[in-house]
Amino acid sequence: xxxxxxxxxxxxxxxxxxxxxxxxxxxxxxxxxxxxxxxxxxxxxxxxxxxxxxxxxxxxxxxxxxxxxxxxxxxxxxxxxxxxxxxxxxxxxxxxxxxxxxxxxxxxxxxxxxxxxxxxxxxxxxxxxxxxxxxxxxxxxxxxxxxxxxxxxxxxxxxxxxxxxxxxxxxxxxxxxxxxxxxxxxxxxxxxxxxxxxxxxxxxxxxxxxxxxxxxxxxxxxxxxxxxxxxxxxxxxxxxxxxxxxxxxxxxxxxxxxxxxxxxxxxxxxxxxxxxxxxxxxxxxxxxxxxxxxxxxxxxxxxxxxxxxxxxxxxxxxxxxxxxxxxxxxxxxxxxxxxxxxxxxxxxxxxxxxxxxxxxxxxxxxxxxxxxxxxxxxxxxxxxxxxxxxxxxxxxxxxxxxxxxxxxxxxxxxxxxxxxxxxxxxxxxxxxxxxxxxxxxxxxxxxxxxxxxxxxxxxxxxxxxxxxxxxxxxxxxxxxxxxxxxxxxxxxxxxxxxxxxxxxxxxxxxxxxxxxxxxxxxxxxxxxxxxxxxxxxxxxxxxxxx
Length: 546
Known about the structure:
This protein is an alpha+beta fold. It has a domain at 283-502: Dipeptide-binding Protein, Domain 3 (Dipeptide-binding Protein, domain 3, Roll), CATH 3.10.105. It has 17 helices and 23 strands. The chain has helices at 5-8, 10-29, 63-72, 120-133, 176-179, 240-249, 260-265, 299-307, 311-319, 348-357, 389-403, 441-446, 461-472, 476-493, 517-523, 533-537, 542-545; strands at 43-48, 77-79, 85-87, 90-95, 101-106, 144-151, 154-159, 200-208, 211-218, 231-236, 254-258, 272-277, 283-289, 323-325, 360-361, 370-371, 379-385, 408-414, 430-436, 496-502, 504-509, 513-514, 539-540. The strands form 6 sheets. A 7-stranded mixed beta sheet has the order 8-9-10-1-11-21-12, with helices on both faces. A 6-stranded mixed beta sheet has the order 14-20-13-19-17-18. Strands 4-5-7-6 form a 4-stranded antiparallel beta sheet, covered by helices on one side. Helix 8 packs antiparallel against helix 10 (348-357) and helix 9 runs antiparallel to helix 11. The chain is globular. The two termini are 37 Å apart.
């Protein structure tokens, strides 16, 4: 894998930063909050299997990068361990009588890590920049029509409709005085210093092949208070096995992004606590249908494939104990997840009957179905990616089940992303793909809302009506009821078959660290929960202090 661009300049940038840091801080904020030296022995080492794809929040999509941003930046509202929005940079807010205008008052004790105070200009700059330049966060701004700053700590946001998800917006507020000075396309900005207002600041990024790591120092001047940790160090181990072994050997204090293999290898290791959780952002694995043409314009034919999906066997063969069978587009870790009661079972006989009803039969008695009018053999084209180990296993199980009822498969494997082949007008019938969920139900449902934005081409007036209701829902009961309706519509019309939810497997050295129990109980996990609370709560034990 090519090294991320930001690493090329990392050492030079860090050297310049260290040389000029004292003078810069003094010039920018000589009489405000400041850092103190890192306390020895309080570094929490986290083993990771992947590197961040970028340190630029506008374009990074990887889970490691999102954890970095969680530490270094603040949003207007953050999520607590239960996934509920609580005040962060937004100290309070009020809504107009028609709920179309938000007046947000910012707290006045928030500072970026270079000492510059956070103001309304930073919020406006961030929102307007991301609305134009960020494919990652652009969906968060649907419905926003105008942003004004009447003073340094007031932001007024106008919306085209009642925007119920405003306080679940995870966008990190960027320092305008840094980003507005970037020349050229912002996609080329490597952001190696990661100056933000969050409770941790990037202290070092090491690109030595023998020690690729990122160290975040705890700030002592953050409005949330002083973290119990002195610093957090993420160390890249190159693989899930390497990360798991580092925890087992005591070289790391925690590991994230592991697979079901580590459930076995780390089970029973003294001092290691395994955490297998389903988070709002847990991976969702599915079959997508091309509903624009061919046999899968028919809802019944899509459901036929589902009857031929032995989800339990696919999961067992590909992930062992590292997941659970799927049903809807929401992760089981999301507060709005809805468990389908009458899930269509693995039943190839029912699938075959659907084919007979659709006009297929084995006219020449060769065990393969053909259209009884045209005589054309029923052959389905499946696309999978060699980058997804699970899709090969699931594809094999599905192919065997379909062959058993007379359906032939034309199976193509690509070395890249299946969506490079499965374009709207592409030659494909089914593809296997995965995505990560979201704590924001509006963002999670958004990709399925119209044929223009959906991979499959599926559209539903009923779904769109419910989606519009979700966008404007402002209370938890309405959100819950509407997302249940959306998940049921999606399941009934079956543009996708959700095969499995992959669990997020983490580990922590509980013989060295404590304080996280309450977060673990509320969130179901420590890392990847979209909340800073775990990092603020983890407390070094006697051994960690040396």
